[in-house]
Amino acid sequence: MTHIFILSCSSVQLRLERFPKHKDGDRFRSFNSKLYHFKWLEYSVSQDSVYCFYCRHFSENSSISDYKCDIFIVAGYRQWKKCYGKSEKEKHLLSFSHCKAVANYEAYNSTLEKGSVISQIRKEHAILIKENRHYLVTLCEILLTITQQKIGVRESVSLFRASAIDIESESIDYGPHSGNFLSLLSLVGNHDEVIARRIKHGPRNAKCTHHSVQNALLDIMAGEVKNKIFEEMQTES
Ligand SMILES: [Zn+2]
């Protein structure tokens, strides 16, 4: 006797050369593997009955009382004459509990592919923190470059006029009199997706381009330099 297992949609569909026959009405009838075109259908050799893969593994206890779904979960279905007719399969396929089980199965698969909702939130949170750090480090590096080159952060007040960013435009441009800081930021943003996304779509209060934030970042960096010098002096002494 040859057994061939076909894994389809995670259901196990066993194929035999000959399926056992049972008296069904006035004739002996057996299961026919043609019924396997229903992906939900599984056949049990020991019970000589069919079950619904979705309902067996993904139904909810409260919905088992629905039309004959308990037969496809617990007892198994073996009335082959009726099974080959349209009514039984259609009734099962249209039953609320079967549809709910299919939805549960799809949600389970989606969770396997993407991870649980909590782990998805954790991943997104970790990405957000990483991008925030990347953005702030970039701002600090621009400010450091400006201070090392001893050039102004922006042009004189009379000339300074940063244009609003056009979020539809492919390139980032703060305008001709935006000053060194915003010009360098737009230059980096035109080559860095994270920076570009923050400038174009980030909340206004999280862009950190206001001069008060620039001063705060310069103060923090100056404090770090002082601490480093102090540590080195303590080590040497
Ligand atoms: Zn079902």
From TrEMBL:
Note the InterPro entries from the entry: Znf_TTF
Organism superkingdom? Eukaryota
Q: Where in the numbering of this chain does the TTF-type domain appear? A: 27-124
Q: What is this protein called?
A: TTF-type domain-containing protein
